[in-house]
């Protein structure tokens, strides 16, 4: 068994099959075939893990669509990994009306191997986010990076800072008084992985080392907190940077999104 396979199996066990939640009002529900995350609006709803058979997969997918429709959710995400069964699960999800988003790469690295002195470009400083004003700076950085904000992300950040601040490290890169990039790290207490999320940078500041500095900052925090591994669902833009930093590819993942017709 390669080290990548071992780490992927560990991730599947901790973050998917045995997932927990610290989001206020949310819960994790388990059946024989799926693990789902259920959260009141505007929180995130989704399927974290599944183990389906070819002869029953379509019925199980329909059951999950019905479950979230009856719950009143506006949307839910089925997080599909390339090694999930059956092999044609993506096509079955599409046939059931779920829409695939861009492919992501599941990547991981030992936190200690990535930890380094953050080196943002001249004129940029990294500021940890601890309050609502900081969250608003993060959302402005997100708007500059991606062209839009996200009420769900803002709600999640504020809830986490209020209810479970020890499980998140949020940081914004400031050029003067302007936020130009932001990212966060989420930690499962007692778990082996710290997830790196966000990392969006304003177009004119890309390619200058801000993303690497944000990764290093969060890696340092993971080491300080005793978390062995960093994990990322990497976009096609961030994957090459992460590979150069020492992250390994564990597999591919595609978010499939169901949206309520009403």
UniProtKB/TrEMBL annotation:
UniProt xrefs under Gene3D superfamilies: 3.40.630.30
Organism placement in taxonomy: Bacteria, Bacillati, Actinomycetota, Actinomycetes, Kitasatosporales
Lineage: superkingdom: Bacteria
InterPro entries associated with the record: Acyl_CoA_acyltransferase, GNAT_dom
Protein name: GNAT family N-acetyltransferase
N-acetyltransferase domain location: 124-262
Classification via CDD domains: NAT_SF
Originating species: Streptomyces bambusae
């Amino acid at each position: 068994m390669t080290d990548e396979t071992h780490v992927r199996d560990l991730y599947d066990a901790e973050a998917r099959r045995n997932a927990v939640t610290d989001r206020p009002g949310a819960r994790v529900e388990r059946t024989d075939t799926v693990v789902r995350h259920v959260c009141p609006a505007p929180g995130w709803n989704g399927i974290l893990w599944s183990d389906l058979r070819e002869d029953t997969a379509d019925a199980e997918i329909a059951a999950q669509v019905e479950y979230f429709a009856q719950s009143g959710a506006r949307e839910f995400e089925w997080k599909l990994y390339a090694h999930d069964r059956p092999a044609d699960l993506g096509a079955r999800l599409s046939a059931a009306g779920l829409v695939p988003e861009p492919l992501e790469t599941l990547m991981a690295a030992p936190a200690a191997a990535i930890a380094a002195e953050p080196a943002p470009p001249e004129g940029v400083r990294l500021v940890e986010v601890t309050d609502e004003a900081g969250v608003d700076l993060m959302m402005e950085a997100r708007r500059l990076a991606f062209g839009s904000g996200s009420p769900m992300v803002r709600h999640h950040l504020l809830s986490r800072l209020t209810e479970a601040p020890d499980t998140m490290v949020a940081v914004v890169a400031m050029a003067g008084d302007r936020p130009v990039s932001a990212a966060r790290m989420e930690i499962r207490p007692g778990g082996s992985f710290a997830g790196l999320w966000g990392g969006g940078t304003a177009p004119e500041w890309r390619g200058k080392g801000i993303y690497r500095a944000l990764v290093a900052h969060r890696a340092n925090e993971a080491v300080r907190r005793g978390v062995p591994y960093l994990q990322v669902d990497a976009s096609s833009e961030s994957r090459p940077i992460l590979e150069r930093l020492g992250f390994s590819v564990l597999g591919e993942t595609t978010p499939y999104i169901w949206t309520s017709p009403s």
